[in-house]
Amino acid sequence: MSELIKVGIADFKLCDVPDQITTIGLGSCVGVALYSQTSTKCGLLHIMLPSSKEISNNSKRAKFADTGIEDMIEALEKEGLRKEQMYAKIAGGAAMFAFGGNSMMSSIGERNVMAVKDKLASYDIPIVGEDTGANYGRTIVFDPITKDLIVRATGKVEIVL
Amino acid sequence: MSYDQLTNTRMDFLKELGNVGAGNATTALSVLLNSRLEMEIPIVKVLEFDEIADMVGGADTVVTAVLTRFSGDVNGMTLFILEMDEAKNLISVMLGKRKDEVPDDLQHMERSVLKEVGNILMSSYIGSIGTLTGLDLKTNPPEISVDMAAAVLSQPIIVLGQIADKALIIDSKFIDNNRCINGVLLFVADEESFEQIFSSLGIR
Lengths: 161, 204
Known about the structure:
heterodimer; A: alpha+beta; 5-stranded mixed β-sheet; 20% helix; globular; B: alpha+beta; 8-stranded antiparallel β-sheet; 8 strands
């Protein structure tokens, strides 16, 4: 029996076939799926803030793009994946409410996406699929067999990355 | 203040704060709808971020959420949340339409109605908290989002997430039995702001 593994906010989990892995209702948060063509294992991370360095309360490492990606890569390496062979697919980073001005709240989704991209670039991990920005929430499901990242949004056609 | 060490006195006080706020908001909504609304006793809870969406029907339930930020002596936000079906009930009453005339993908007019109702509710809620505590609280214009509960709630969660891994929430429910409108009003603020509220009334 295959299962659908759920990843909560500020968390990451690993997954192997025949299971699939999901995170529900990404708003300004960003979901990062990491996998390798040579392995059936993959990981999914749900970050909510760009950087652990800007904030004193940073013990929950999966909350941040920088430390979250670091830890998930390490966990995948323990499962035998190699950084040089990893690919990433990302989704989320929306602005759910249309606040005027350039407040921290109106730009947080965008900054989360930037931080994820920067961190992945520092490992030379290519982003081969992306659905980010805009003003709506996304539920994502990653399938380690097909390596597809399915993106579902309310009232919109499903996207396969 | 640590959320893990909330005394009973503080919990009771927050419940009372929610009671007064929601009481005034309920009165305002009753006048607006020309209907008698009931209010449940507010629930005060310390929640993991993942648990917040469960309060409004689950992470992937589509909701309408009107968010008002407030600032001054206390910083935080209130959210007025309705499940889609209930939002349509409310809109149909306000616009004098039949419910089936309200489109599923709410348009500008429908969204404006929800925003305005949310504004009236939350202004009276925040206003009464200001009167009770003597603190200066200014509300900002509301914004609306119609989407999955988890996505909508990510906004307040991220703001709180900068300083905490949990949220302290005052959850008030309004019920209009005749029209099946069952709204949730969440009061969200950071620890420092709650500390301000407590000290304004000498609650240790």
